Structures are given as structure tokens and as C-alpha cells.
User: Fold this.
Amino acid sequence: MKKITTISVFAAVVTLLISCKKYLNTDQYFKDRMTLDKSFNNEKYIEEWLANSYSYITEINADVASKGYEPFNFGDDMYYGDRDGAYDPQNANSLNYNKFSLGNYHEGDVQSWAKCFQGIRSASIFIQNIDRSTVIDAARKADYKAQARFLRAYCYWILLRKYGPVPILPDEGVDYTDSYADLALPRNSYEQCAEYIGKEMVLAARDLPQNRGQLAIARPTRGAALATRAKVFLYAASPLMNGGKLSMDYKAQLVDDKGTPLLSLTYDEQKWARAAAAAKDVMQLGVYSLFVSPYKSSGTITHPATIAPPYNAAYSEKPWPEGWADIDPFDSYRALFDGEVPASSNPELIFTRGQNQSSEGINVMVVHQLPRIASGWNTHGLTLKQCDAYYMNDGADVPGKGMEYGSGDGSQRVGGFVTDQDVADGRYKPLASGVSLQFANREPRFYASVAYNGSVWHLTNESQVNNREKQVFYYRGSGNGYTNTMFWLRTGIGVMKYVNPQDTYENGNLGKVVPKYEPAIRYADILLAYAESLNELNGSYSIPSWDSSTVYTIARDVDEMRKGIRPVRIRAGLPDYPGAIYSSSAQLRTAIKRERQIELMGEQQRYYDLRRWEDAAIELTVPIYGYNTLMTATQRDLFHQPVAAFALQSTFASKMYFWPIAIDELRRDARLTQNPGWQTYK
Assistant:
């Protein structure tokens, strides 16, 4: 590598993701010039350089954020109604939901390519120079270097998930102080990218600690590195990247500059075994577990007494984790997301950027979920498909599920409404009077996630007592229902996930929304990935653990698959699947996909899951259904008869498998090829 003599550093005051320190902007030139030796022998500059590297995985490179940065958080489960030029001409050029879901975006929209490669460059310079430092000890060097290695690999993961295969900048023979424009390279294959990220995360894991203190909660741990590796390998094993037949024409078109396919055209079952072993590596750390809240025999309005699931001899009398006798399934799920549980006290949170999520963070997402009565935008909602995905509290399907798509079991949707007498007699908890019985007796995750018609919003941060504890209906004319503005829910179904009982947007004060911790990677995700990967196996494989300390025997074993599924189901107050489902790979595959749809809703999983499974061409081409939002309160029976949501559109074309690369990036790199179906520069 050629000798580097000088660089420029910037000591402006900025806010760091993980603290309030300053960081170096290594990409801009100012009057102060210094050698790399000086930079890496100044403790302040070392800290600032590393902080700068963290900055590249924020904002548009977050995992969970509102649509300004992450429209990928929305799909056939959750939608957004604002930024719609049909109701607000000032937003005519914005990427509204329909443009996004119809593929009517362009090569310049929501681009994170350059920022990721800047992060890769910043972290690479750090990795290659930190060892020369004489001002920090060996232990800190190792930790800092491992953090930078994690950040570099995570930038590649963000790119791989969003754009598909990308160029991997070689560690040797490249001067990372050169601009990316001087590093013209072709795209590596998906498998090469996955292998590279996996190896880098193993190197990082060796020197990252098992745990970090509360003040460093957004810095990666060993588990974060191994969990990212597990997710990368899960994607690499999935049909889109692993010989799936439905996307074969697309795979034939996605090639490098020499015409070599970048996605595997042949199926390799061992990739599923590799993914299962990687998930098991995380499980074997013994650090993580699902978060649970304790059973409450009494409570308050905002934290009511536990609503026990229907009696089940296998679970009702057994304590967690074998049963739900001593936990509150509703609060166990709600508190994960609403800011109530500190990240440092959450054994399920593997990686997070903390509460520092910029102008499009989860708190802003909540503002768009809050009803108008709380000065919220009232524009983020759920589709009927997502609403129906949630089980009944005994694990059965909701009556009428799928009937609009012709895929139901012949049952009809329930009629009738909760009466005052029902409430007085304690029936249908937690429903209030006037709520449709379609929402009765549903699983706890439903009530923690869905703002159904007639939900009660607590709003305890409202300054006036009479503005708290408000039941909100979405009937036309109700104040929160259909209007000729953008501020209404297109399906008549809102989003409760992430909403804390205190949250309100009174007087436009974001401080009245409780800060949330970003759930970038959760243990529930890893558990479900483990079960999904095992389910795809026919053979048995010997796979070394991440540190080669043992060798796993990986095969489709029902007891092992239950380790991934059973805790998620029990925590939700639901029985595990019966043996008949476990005995069928096809039935269990369908069940796991549904479990991910429910458990991981609103966490930027569904968008990518549908693509990697090759399910997008089916799931995204059907109409979006909701309730009849044109109906008033006097027409409540008609309101609850589902109709196609006239304001929401969806489709899928193969060009939508991966996001388009910006034209400017194609100009910079003569060897870079565009994703199929998008404009090229040649």
C-alpha cells in the first residue's frame, strides 16, 4: 500500500450517535493538516475518528426509522398516507406510499450507497492505522479496531440488503485516503459479499466484549457481530439468492461487467445449514433471552392487570419459559418498543443505535401514528392483511381471514359490537364499548400493535386531564376518520406499536413523546431465523462454531426448531404449533413466515423478507384491503365490511427486488453495473 503522508481533519462540533462528543470529518479539508501518525497518537482524534465512522450508519442507513429515511419500513403490512400530492400539492414530488409500492421511484431516491462507502473508507483507515498509536493501551486498540471492523462490515450489510451485490474494496493494495471515485471495481457476487461480511464479523467478534455498559449501549458487542452474520447468511440461503426458480429470469440479468451472474443460479442446501449454525452461535453465547414482563394481579389504567390467555394445560400453570403463568404477554411485547424498558435492561436487544435517531426516528414515526385528537398526523396505518395475520387468543385464525382474497376457510367475519353491559361484566377485555367484535379475543401482540377502530389512547402527557384516556373511532366525521386532507387512515386501522401510554404531540411538542430505542436486531429475529433455516434442510451437516471451539451437527430436528419458535409463541401467550405442522416443511415454512410478519412488524423486516423468499410477486400484487372509511358512526356495520382501499395501490415487478443504484455512482465507477430494470449510464 502506497505511503500516506497527510490527511485533513475537521474538529467541528457535531452530535455523535453514541455520545455527545465531537468527531472528525475525514472527508473535508480545513486549515489544520496533520499526518496520520499525529492523528492516531492523539486520544481525542482517535475517539473522534471512530465516532465519525459510526455516523455513517445513522439516518438513511438506520434499520428502523420513519419513511423519510426508511420507506422500507412500510410494505403490505404498514403504510403511510402523508407526503401524498393528491391531498397536498406541496408534496407532489415526494416519494409517497403509492409511488413506493408501485415502483415509481427513480435512481436518485433514498440513496445510501455513497454514505455507506464513505463509512467503509473511514473505518478502513482507522483499522489500518490504529495499531501505530502509542497513546492507548492494547486492550482499547483491540476493542476500537473491532468496532471499526464491525462498522465497515455493517455498511456492507446495509448495501447488500438494499442494492444486492456490491464491490468489495480489497484490504491490500488500495489507498483508502483516495476517493471512492478512484477505486473503480466491479460488483462481487452475493455469495462473495456474504462470505466477506461473515468473516469480518467473526474477526470483530473476537475482540468485542459480551456486554457494554449503559453509556455505550449503541456500541456493538460480540453478539451484535454474530447476529449480523446470522442475518447475512439467512439472506444468502434464501430463494432469491440461492437458486430460487421464480426469480430465475431476474437472476440471469443481474450480472457484473463481464456478464457473470451475481446471484446463484443453482440451489445449495448447505447455505441453510450455515445460516442455522450462525444463528446457533448467537444462541450459544448465553447472553440473550426474550424480554418478559411479570404477571400483574392488579394494575392501573395504563398498565392494567394481566389478561391471561385462555386456559391451556400445557402452558397456563407453568412459569416462563415453559409457560405463561408468571408473565404478562401483552406488556412483554408492548414494553419492548414503547421506550419503557432501557436498552441496558433489555436482554432481547442485540444491536441498537439507541435513542439518537435524528429527524426521522421512531419518535417521529409515532407522531404520525397518533390520532388527530392528540395533535398527531394520523397517517400511518395497517392493512387488513396485517390486522388479520394476528391470531385469536387460543391460536386459531380470526374468522373471515383471507376471505377477500379467496383464500379463507369459509368462515365469515364476526358481527356485533361490545356493549356497556359487556364492559361492566368484564367481557372482551381490553375492548371498550362500541368496538367491533371482530377485534375481540385476539392475541396480546394484536392489542400491543394495532390501533383498531375504537381503541383507547392514554395520552397521559396531555396537560389537561380531560384530553387523556380518549377512545378514538375512524368513522367519517369523527374527527379522526376520513377527510379531504391527508390526515386520515386509508384502511381505518392504525398503528399502536411503539406508542407509549404517555405519548402525545400536544402543541407540536416532540418532547411529549417518550424516546424509543431502535430495535435494529432482536433475539426473537435470531430465534425465528434458526427455525426457518433448520426447516429447509433434508440432510445433516457438520458446521464449526464461529470460534471453531466446537462443531455443530445441523439437521432438521423438531426439538431444535421448537427452540426457535416455542419461546416466541409462549411469550405472546400462544400455544406452540402442533406436531402436524412441525412434521411438514411446507406447513412450517408458512407458519414461520406468518410468525415473522406478526412478531417483527414495523421493524423493516417484511419488505426484505418478501423479496428474499420470492413471495413479493404474490403478496404485493393483490389489492390492499381495509375497512370502509367512507361510512359514518351511524353506518358502523358497513364500516366493518372490508373493501379495497381506494387510496392505496400496490404491485410488484422484478426490477423491485433490489433498489436502483444512483446514476452518479455508475458514472464514477466504469465497472459498476446497474440492477436490472433501471436506467444505466453507458
Q: What stands out?
A: The longest strand covers residues 541-544. Confidence is low (pLDDT under 50) at residues 1-33. The radius of gyration is 25 Å. The CA atoms of residues 167 and 649 lie 34 Å apart.
